[in-house]
Design a protein that fits this description.
Strand order of the largest sheet: 1-2-3-5-4
Largest sheet: 5 strands, antiparallel
Radius of gyration: 15 Å
Strand content: 15-25%
Length: 171
């Protein structure tokens, strides 16, 4: 997939709205998703479809951190930061795992990825967010959405680190 693994540190610009480090468990994941969705609703009028997309992307990012990153190890934590920056909002999710290179994850619509059980979450996030980038050797994901894109079905944006689009379908 065409999602960059940035060599620089993930720098959050704008104003932090919410920040929490959670244990590696499903209850904490659901609680933090509910909190972020509530804070997002307070700042933006979203359609039911947009709320579903946001929740799905948050769930995917957090599940990847809990499962693939931390291996559901209860000794490890996940840090979540929500921010707004002008006409966009974003979330970073950081785990304590070994990291990964998103370029090694095949597009789930390709012949290689079609029958794999993983990789669909990254694909979904890239379709619904304006910006998806990985930092810290793949241990931190940045999801960012322009407010103008909130009601659209898909958001494809230039990624500053690579100059390519976060559209792994190659369309």
């Amino acid at each position: 997939m065409d999602i960059p693994l940035c060599q620089s540190a993930c720098e959050i610009t704008g104003r932090i709205i919410f920040e929490e480090t959670i244990p590696t468990n499903a209850d904490a994941k659901l609680r933090v998703i509910d909190t972020i969705m509530t804070r997002l609703a307070q700042r933006s009028e979203l359609s039911e479809q947009a709320r579903f997309r946001h929740r799905l992307c948050l769930d995917e990012a957090l599940e990847n951190a809990l499962d693939h990153g931390n291996g559901y190890d209860p000794a490890k934590k996940v840090k979540v930061v929500m921010f707004e920056d002008g006409d966009s909002w974003g979330v970073t999710v950081s785990d304590e795992g070994e990291g990964f290179d998103p370029a090694t994850i095949p597009n789930p619509r390709s012949a290689e990825g079609l029958y794999k059980e993983s990789g669909r979450g990254i694909f979904i996030m890239s379709q619904f967010m304006s910006r998806v980038e990985y930092f810290d050797e793949g241990r931190t994901v940045l999801l960012q959405l322009d407010r103008a894109s909130e009601e659209r079905g898909s958001a494809t944006a230039e990624t500053p680190a690579s100059g390519t689009t976060a559209n792994p379908g190659g369309d």
